[in-house]
Amino acid sequence: MGNCLKRSTTDDISLLRGSDSVRESSSDQLGQPYQEPIPAEDVSPVYYPSPSVSRSVVQLTEEEQVKIAKRIGLIQNLPIGTYDGCKKERECVICMVEFLVGDTVRCLPCMHTYHMKCIDGWLMRSLTCPSCLEPVDAALLTSYETT
Amino acid sequence: MANIAAQRIKREFKEVIKSEEVAKCAIKLELVNDSFTELKGEIAGPPDTPYEGGNFVLEIKVPETYPFNPPKVRFVTKIWHPNISSVTGAICLDILKDQWAAAMTLRTVLLSLQALLSAAEPDDPQDAVVAKQYKENLEMFESTARHWTNIYAGGPDLNKDFNDKIRKLVEMGVEEHQARVALSSYNWDLERATEQLFS
Ligand SMILES: [Zn+2]
Ligand SMILES: [Zn+2]
C-alpha cells in the first residue's frame, strides 16, 4: 500500500500556478491571490495525485502538477452555499457533525452536501462524491454541455 | 491526531455499539487507547464458510488523515484465506486501498471483511500460496481453512488427520505453527512438508 507515508494535516489547499512555480496560499480560501513564494524547504504541502499516493510539492512530476491544478479548478467551480436548515441532509457524513445554520457548505452535482472544509479535503484526493461515488468531474462536464 | 479523525471515531464507535450486527454478535469493536487512534475489531466467521464458528480479531489503526484515507486493518487471528496473508494478516481489499470513500465507516469495513470471508477473490491475492490452493484444489483449501479456524479462531471442526501430521513434525523438533504452515502449503503431504522444513 502506498499510503503509509506521513502526511500533512493541514486543510489548506495551495494553488499551483503554471507548471514550474509552486506557491503556498496564505489562507484556506480557494482562488486567493498570492503573496511571496515560500521556499520549498520551509513549507512542504502534501498533494495526492491519486488517493493512495501522497507527495510533497517538491516531489510532484510536471504531469501531476497539471493534474492537481486542473482538480483545483474543478473544485472552485462547485457551488458554495450557506446551510439554511431546510436541506434534507442534517449532518456532514465526512466529519459526522450536524450542520448548523450559517455553516459554509458545498453542494456536489449529485446534490450531496458537505461542509466546504470537509469536502475540499476529500476532493483533493478523489473527485468523487464520498456518499454515492458519482464522479464529480463527469457530472460537471455534462452540466456544462447542457447549459 | 487531527480533530476530525478523533471526532469521527468517537461518533462511529457509539453508532457501532448500538448496531444490530453487534446485537447479533456478528461484529465487535473495542477501543485500545483513549486517543481513538487504535481499535480492536472482531468479526464472526460467516455461516456456510470454512470460517463458521470462529471469531477473528482485527487490529485497526486510524490514520491522522481519517476519513480522507482508510483505516489500516490487519488480521491478528491467523487465517487461511487467499486475500489475507497467512504470515502477517495483511488484507487485500479494494475499499481499504483505492476504493475507500470518506462516507465509509468502521462498521462498513468490518462488514466488508466479513463479506470477504464469504467471497474470496483468488485472482487478486494477498497470499499466493493460499490462492493457488484455492484455485487448484478447493476442497483441500476448505479443509485447511477450517482447520486454521479450529486452531486459531475457536472454530468447532477438529481435524484429527491434520493434527496427527502436525504432531509428527513437532516430534521431529519443528515448531507447531511452522509445521502447520508447511503442511498447509504442501496440501498436507507429510513427505514434501518434511523435505521443505529440513532442506
Ligand atoms: Zn463536515
Ligand atoms: Zn453524491
UniProtKB/TrEMBL annotation, chain A:
Segments of this protein annotated with the region Disordered: 16-41
Any single GO BP term: ubiquitin-dependent protein catabolic process
RING-type domain: residues covered: 92-132
Transmembrane segments: none
Pfam family, one: zf-RING_2
UniProtKB keywords: Metal-binding, Zinc, Zinc-finger
GO-annotated molecular function: ubiquitin protein ligase activity; zinc ion binding
InterPro entries per UniProt: RNF11_RING-H2, UEC_component, Znf_RING, Znf_RING/FYVE/PHD
Keyword Signal (UniProt): no
Cellular component, GO, one term: ubiquitin ligase complex
Protein name: RING finger protein 11
UniProt gene name: LOC108735214
Automatic annotation (TrEMBL), chain B:
Enzyme Commission number: 2.3.2.23
Active site: C92
Keyword Flavoprotein: no
Keywords (A to Z) from UniProt: ATP-binding, Nucleotide-binding, Transferase, Ubl conjugation pathway
InterPro entries on file: UBA (IPR015940), UBA-like_sf (IPR009060), UBC (IPR000608), UBCD4_UBA (IPR042614), UBQ-conjugating_AS (IPR023313), UBQ-conjugating_enzyme/RWD (IPR016135)
Cross-referenced Gene3D superfamilies: DNA helicase RuvA subunit, C-terminal domain, Ubiquitin Conjugating Enzyme
Pfam families: UBA, UQ_con
Domain (UBA) ranges: 157-199
Molecular functions (GO terms): ATP binding; ubiquitin conjugating enzyme activity
Domain (UBC core) ranges: 4-154
Similarity comment text for this entry: Belongs to the ubiquitin-conjugating enzyme family.
Name the UniProt record assigns to this protein: E2 ubiquitin-conjugating enzyme
Gene (UniProt): LOC108742335
